[in-house]
Amino acid sequence: MSHPLLPLPEPAYVLIRVEAPPEAPARIADRLREPGIPGGLIGYEYRPLGEPLYLGAVGEQGAVAVAASGLFGYIAVDAATGQVVQVPRADSAATRHVNGDLDSFTRCVEAVIARFPFYAEDEEDRFGEVAEELRALLSGIDGTALAHSGFWETFCDDVEMGSYADGDD
Description:
By secondary structure, this protein is α+β, with helices and mostly antiparallel strands. Helices cover 28% and strands 20% of the residues. The chain has helices spanning 26-33, 102-115, 127-141, 151-160, and strands at residues 15-16, 37-38, 47-55, 63-69, 73-78, 84-87, 96-99. A hairpin with a 7-residue loop joins strand 3 (47-55) and strand 4 (63-69).
């Protein structure tokens, strides 16, 4: 038996400027201010923080958390490499790859939002097709985006399972 899901709100692509914590390297702080970061994605995958946090336990030089991801995680910029990573909890040193840099992340978010809505609830036959379209789109923007067990690979797997159906029909 299936249960009705609330429809996903229509996402909108916007950039927001954020002030980095004082521990952030200048090159990251400058990038967060101009042009900024995406103001959201779809659902609870990525929600910008009101105030970015410095996560000292991540990577060689820490990371700047710019968004919440899931229930307890963060999307962060590794201070040493500039890569965008997903951190499962604030006290964790573990990370999952998101993108090679903030510019690639921003372009991936923009492309995914532009492609939404992906399918209707009753279009189960399209779930896999749309997931493959998204995989091609994301890997075309950033060749590292579909890293094994990474943020975007998991997102595409969720799309393939029907987690992002538009229930407005």
